[in-house]
Design goal:
Blueprint: H1 4-11, E1 37-46, H2 57-75, E2 78-88, H3 108-125, E3 128-136, E4 140-149, E5 165-169, H4 174-182, H5 192-201, H6 207-212, E6 219-222, H7 227-238, E7 241-245, H8 260-272, E8 279-283, H9 288-298, E9 302-309, E10 316-319, E11 325-326
Parallel strand pairs: 2-3, 7-10
Antiparallel strand pairs: 1-4, 2-4, 5-8, 5-9, 6-8, 7-9, 10-11
Length: 341
């Protein structure tokens, strides 16, 4: 069985056509396109915190990269390069096959499937994997992604203005509902289980949307920690407040067996569940038509869910159909303020 360097050579060394010098030396060498700024982000995924230990490794490989590309998407940057570092619970000198259920270790077949999913995502979004590191330890994956953008064009969190409309892409809440389904906390009506679990395990970073919003949106963020929490980050950085209207949110699963308690859970997943990697952004009313055209061109639903107001910086108010405020016990995910999932 291959050791550390044999493992890297076998599963994680691929051609890097957009790179001056790829894996194999002390550093990679990259050459940014003339006149471009670099956007850099790092995200870590830890077993038991960010994903269930028995998640399909191919989907985990995809997601590990996708969540980093989502940060680049939120800035409107074009993904170019990534590095991959990971700790693997591999017994010393033993990569022999093991049962499919996760027993605290991974085998070579698991690593091969993880690499398959990871490089599938890299190919889909046109990025070179230029290096990284491996070590033995509790299962976690840490990725640094690098993108390019024109100077002064990045979509930032501090550009929202009073009067802006608030928009969100896709259907926030699906990933959190998928997790609840897998954990047995909810039983979704068909066909939602498949859709929600796919949203959780194989998210689609909105790279094309981020780039299309340059010159259209005033501020943007991806909703990895929850719609209300991440919208609150925009408001805090922009010195403004937000109003979200429940009647304008995307539709959630419905059905006769879907009782009031489950509907409430679904709404909480939608507003504060996180792990969606959709984009929430603000834009002047004058851009409403342009945003509709972007949605049609990308075949991606975009929903106007409220507006930015001149209230207490960082505050987000949710209004019911009668325009009365609705309170929710939590607004999003915080690693240091609550139990991990």
């Amino acid at each position: 069985m291959p050791g550390e360097f044999g493992l890297i050579a076998k599963y994680f060394s691929r051609p890097t056509p957009a790179t001056v010098l790829g894996p194999g030396d002390d550093c990679a060498l990259i050459a940014p396109s003339p006149g471009k700024q670099l956007a850099v982000t790092t995200d870590m995924l830890v077993a038991g915190t960010h994903f269930l230990p028995d998640t399909d490794p191919a989907r985990l490989g995809w997601k590990a990269l996708a969540v980093n590309l989502s940060d680049l998407a939120a800035m409107g940057a074009k993904p170019r390069w990534v590095t991959l570092a990971g700790a693997l619970p591999v017994p010393q000198g033993d990569l022999s096959p093991r049962p499919r259920s996760f027993q605290g270790v991974v085998d070579e077949a698991w690593i091969a499937k993880f690499a398959e999913g990871f490089f599938a995502c890299a190919a889909e979004y046109g990025v070179d994997v230029i290096g990284g590191d491996t070590t033995k330890g509790p299962l976690n994956v840490c990725i640094t992604a690098i993108g390019e953008i024109e100077p002064g064009q990045a979509l930032r969190r501090d550009g929202a203005k009073a009067g802006d409309q608030i928009w969100v892409s896709g259907r926030p809440g699906l990933a959190s509902l998928g997790l609840a389904q897998l954990q047995g906390r909810i039983e979704l009506p068909e066909p939602w289980p498949r859709l929600c679990i796919a949203a959780l395990e194989k998210p689609r970073p909105r790279v094309a949307l981020g780039q299309a919003l340059i010159g259209v949106a005033n501020a943007a963020i991806d909703i990895s920690d929850g719609l209300l929490a991440d919208l609150g980050h925009i408001c805090e950085r922009s010195g403004c407040a937000a109003i979200v209207k429940l009647v304008q949110l995307p539709h959630l699963p419905k059905g006769e067996s879907y009782n009031a308690d489950l509907r409430r859970m679904a709404l909480e997943c939608q507003l504060s569940g996180g792990d969606d990697y959709e984009l929430v952004f603000t834009a002047p009313f004058e851009q409403h038509l342009a945003i509709g055209q972007i949605a049609a061109r990308l075949e991606l639903p975009l929903w106007c869910i409220g507006e930015i107001s001149a209230g207490t910086p960082g505050s987000v108010t949710v209004l019911d159909p009668d325009d009365k405020p609705v309170e929710f016990p939590r607004t999003g995910y915080d690693h240091f303020a609550q139990e991990t999932a």
